[in-house]
Specification:
- It is elongated and about 65 Å long.
- The protein is mainly α.
- It has helices at 12-18, 26-40, 52-59, 63-75, 100-109, 112-137, 140-155, 159-175, 180-203, 211-222, 226-246; strands at residues 79-82, 86-89.
- It has two domains: 12-94, Winged helix-like DNA-binding domain superfamily/Winged helix DNA-binding domain (Arc Repressor Mutant, subunit A), CATH 1.10.10; 111-246, Four Helix Bundle (Hemerythrin (Met), subunit A).
- A two-stranded antiparallel sheet has the order 1-2.
């Protein structure tokens, strides 16, 4: 009898890029369904959602589960409820854009080019400055962590392994800033970076084309040259943006 293969466990980057509130629970079903409608634009900002009893019936959940789901959506900045008015969808500027669910929905539902551009713009602000700070303040042990992540990128045999190693590389650079504010920022942007790297892996023809650019960042940090580290990281992010827009092999 042929042995049936089992799916491999999702990698760290893929888990982060696709992390959403579990939809198996009733309240999770509410969050997932309404969140996708809002992010996807089928329910527009400023629109009122149907009355509670009607929406609960449509989603086939209890009013208690609906209320719990609405609390989660409200915490994500997607909706607001007012007495005698109802629940209204908020403007996109109020959405918590780096929330893991919001990122996953945007990745799945919005035009990839627009989404990638915005992620690249965010990286361009944060990561070159982090690389420069890492070159100034890194410890020997932190340099080793960056080197280990780079070695994992060299050794990667598939796109998932590459995306995980890529994420570890950028995490190690941010940690090496020895700036607790910058380190804390990684926990906020981690899902965004993972989403970017998974998107990069999906469009890659030869993902290891990116290795020299990461090597330039590593070398500048190793030599304690902040300006060179800043420029190398800036070049990596920009090259990644260009190649992803072309749909060719990304470098970031």
């Amino acid at each position: 009898m042929t042995k049936r293969s089992t799916p491999s466990a999702p990698t760290r980057a893929r888990r982060l890029a696709t992390a959403t509130t579990p939809s198996r629970s009733l309240y999770g079903h509410v969050v997932h369904e309404l969140g996708r409608r809002i992010i996807g634009g089928s329910v527009k900002p400023g629109e009122l959602l149907p009355r509670e009893e009607l929406l609960a019936e449509e989603l086939r959940v209890s009013r208690t589960a609906l209320r719990e789901g609405m609390k989660v959506l409200s915490a994500k900045g997607l909706v607001e409820s007012r007495p005698k008015v109802g629940t209204r969808v908020r403007e996109a500027r109020a959405w918590h854009q780096l929330d893991a669910d919001v990122l996953a929905w945007r990745c799945a539902l919005m035009p990839t080019e627009d989404f990638v551009r915005k992620l690249a713009d965010m990286r361009q602000v944060i990561e070159p400055a982090a690389a420069a700070a890492a070159a100034k303040y890194r410890t020997y042990e932190q340099l080793q962590c960056i080197e280990e992540a780079f070695a994992a990128m060299e050794a990667a045999v598939d796109l998932d392994a590459w995306a995980d190693a890529d994420l570890a590389f950028h995490e190690a650079v941010l940690t090496a800033t020895n700036n607790e504010l910058m380190v804390s920022l990684f926990s906020v942007i981690e899902s965004a970076l993972a989403t970017f790297f998974v998107l990069s892996a999906r469009t890659a023809k030869n993902f290891k084309d990116a290795l020299p650019l990461h090597g330039e960042v590593l070398d500048a940090i190793r030599r304690s040259e902040p300006d060179a580290a800043h420029q190398a990281m800036l070049g990596m992010v920009e090259e990644s943006r260009i190649n992803m827009q072309k749909g060719s092999s990304p470098k970031g």
